[in-house]
Amino acid sequence: MKKIITIFGSTGNLMYKKLIPAFDNLIKHNYLDSDTQIYVVARKNWNLEEYIEDAKKQVTVPIEWDKLTTYLKYIEMDITNLDDYYKLKDLIDNFKEVDRMFYLAVPPSLFPTIAKGISTSGLIKKDDENSRIVFEKPFGEDLKTAKKINQELWSYFSENQIYRIDHYLGKEMIQNILVVRFANFVFEKNWDNSSIESIVILAKETEGIMNRGNYYDKVGALKDMVQSHLMQMASLVTMEKPETYNSNDIKNEKVKAIKSLKIDPNNIILGQYKGYKNTKNVDPDSNTETFVYLKACLNNKRFKNVPIHFLTGKMLDEKRSEIIINFKHSNSSYSSAQQNKLVIKVAPKEGVNFILNVKEAGLTESIIPVKLDYCHSCSFLGNTPEAYEKLLLDLFNKQNSLFTRWDEIESSWKIIDELKGHELNVITYETYEDLKKIIIKQSED
Ligand code: BG6
């Protein structure tokens, strides 16, 4: 069946940074049928050549433009005008049988307008299994708006037509968390508070907010990163073993894990990088946070008294996302032995490493920590697929296991809303070192 994916927000950052490179790679590796079409929707009175000309200026990675262009069609549309949805419908209905997907790469405030247009015009009929609609995060601005959007979506579409993206779920090593935990008896057996001392969930970035002031200043790091990506990582790391590895059983356990997460309001550090306020489309008096450190714990038997540290921010010293499991010192271990540590490296280089103690080589009794290092990206010929490639391919194949279910989003919004209810101070930082000192001082107090 012919597939058509229509992308709203085709002149946005997400399209240029992530979706175009992902489509380019899928096409290069023959994952898309040659009659697949990608409709790029925008408001500007352009033709396809003009769109490509602009895209070439924005996309920073090499793209086989000639090949990609054969899949694209430019659609000029005013998303508030219902007639434009009917025109799009006529265009798509020209094909006898079409598997149709609509991707909303737009801010959440536009979700209701576009979803309504798609439903009212009949572009998607409820329950039609060959129609899907995709939403980018953040899904809503808080629990209240997310619920409202969701109720509206359920009135137009059935749950299995709704795909809510959290692109971290498409990352190779995030897909690997359950495998590392449950395919290795040694970890499965020791994955609780008798063996684990603390957990760190980290996503550091070197870039600032670039040209995303309009979006970012209303959102901030808590909603942009913690509510979605970091909560997803935490839930996979701390959930109980699912009954089966099917999508719903896994999601059931993830939801329970998120619900038992408690953040300590006295252990929060919010920061804003110096110069942020001078960014285009940012309020000069903005109090929006670009850095978050949180200490949390899980209100359940398995992880009682195990602190979970969340850390994310922009304009830091390095680009690094990882999950660190610090194991306890055993009472019977050599006094100079270090703690075992498991690191699941999500980005920039995917892999897993494990720190263990060995006797130093030579005529010595010393014990030294060594690193067993598995480089996941090295084992794959070429680059490991980007998250968006995996997610787009799953969308094309009607696979929704790496997309978030409503109750996952609902429970993580509850946590963020609760935090936002506290009076939280935002400090200005110049370097990551500034923040590190404050975190260390706070943990000593
Ligand atoms: C996005 C956020 O969801 O994730 C961005 O909106 C952030 O602010 C990005 O930069 C980080 O993703 P990645 O894949 O580069 O770690």
Task: Please explain how this structure is put together.
The mean pLDDT is 94. Strand 12 (341-347) and strand 13 (351-359) form a beta hairpin. The protein is an alpha/beta fold. The N and C termini lie far apart (63 Å). The radius of gyration is 23 Å and the shape is globular. It is 36% helix and 24% strand. The protein has a nine-stranded mixed β-sheet with strand order 14-13-12-11-7-10-9-8-15, with helices on both faces. Strands 3-2-1-4-5-6 form a six-stranded parallel β-sheet, with helices on one face. The chain is built from 14 helices and 15 strands. Residues 205, 224, 321, 347 line the site of 6-O-phosphono-beta-D-glucopyranose.
